[in-house]
Write a structure and sequence with these properties.
Strand content: 15-25%
Structural class: alpha/beta
CATH topology of one domain: TIM Barrel
CATH superfamily of one domain: Metal-dependent hydrolases
Distance between the termini: 35 Å
Amino acid sequence: MSQASRGSGPSIVIRGGRVVDASGERRADVAVVEGRVAAVEADLDVPSGARVLDAGGCVVAPGFVDLHAHLRQPGREEAETVESGSRCAALGGFTAVVAMPNTTPAIDSASVVREVIELGRTALCEVHPSGAITVDRAGERLAPMGEMADLGVRIFTDDGTGVQDDGLMRRAMEYAVGLPYDVVLAQHCENDRLCAGGHMHEGEWSSRLGIAGQPAEAEEAMVARDIALARLTGARIHMQHMSTAGSVALIAAARAEGLAISAEATPHHLLLTHAECASFDPTFKVNPPLRTDADVEAVRRGVLDGTLDVIATDHAPHPPEAKDEPFDLAPPGMLGLEFALGVALSVLDLPLPELVRRLSTRPAEIAGLTDSQGGPVEPGRPANLCVFDPTATWTVEPGMTASRSRNIPYVGRTLSGRVRHTLRAGEPVVLDGTPQR
């Protein structure tokens, strides 16, 4: 047997698991010293005083990275805070999240970026604020992206609303290209005029239920526009929460052309369809809306073949009283951080290294976080790690969340795969499925 470290003994040894990262998988124990991986070897000796974490039957992977989480703070703390959202993240195996800017006030200035960074210092995962593309996300004038980029912001988005003005979006792309940083413009792809007044997907079920719908073309029109603008400007763009077969086809063609485009799929768009709205339960109201079976199948294929690079949660908490409103008055959004792994393992036939790539490695690359996130699991790397049992099954129950909100769309469903431990910079923030703070 090999010693875990030639210096001081490891503070933690993760024993009996399969180490899986984007490069492959192997049987190995993992030793952690002072927040970093110290050794990855089979049958490591455990020095006296080291803490042993059981990973029997489990995968040891780089922690997951979510490109799309609504943590609501500042301003909407009744729904979520950075602390409570980070607890959800850690329970889901995420060691980093990108916080969306639709807060109150919006994350559209250096001062609000600093506030969110400060709130994240004591969180259970890394919290990286995104910045708004336009002031107050109003779509009228560009926000000071350069000042926010100076503070480390690398993703800019008006998420919750797409930038409607074609000329303004072109200027945003040109400005981003001119920054001395590698930044990404992420787009919430919805044409406001095409989806105005709609509350679910426009199709068979909206007609049956008498609920005004949003056509798939509302998303696809903006996807096509931004692809054209990316071709014109050379900007890096990221398409958020893709939900239609047409969008997947447009992105596949753009990537074949060599454009710098990435895209994400959410757990709910991989599993749920517009038929869920037949219950009139506002839990199933989301933007973009749940689509058809054919769209769900196309989104799954997009993830499987890499057209859609990442799985991102679009974790969108709302307090119970808001989701108790009638369907047409309730706000859109669903919880996702604690359920993403379970949904992905339940519906996607991906080899584990590829699943880790979609949940960890590729989102870390897009967000510019590869120094600390995304693996590989090897000596010297920060110990941001997730240990999960891919064979565990569990049934989602009401209230089964660390969120301040309760809008879970998976209640009653049995999912496969569950997180056992999560380490942030070597600190076990989740042990045996229980948050440690």
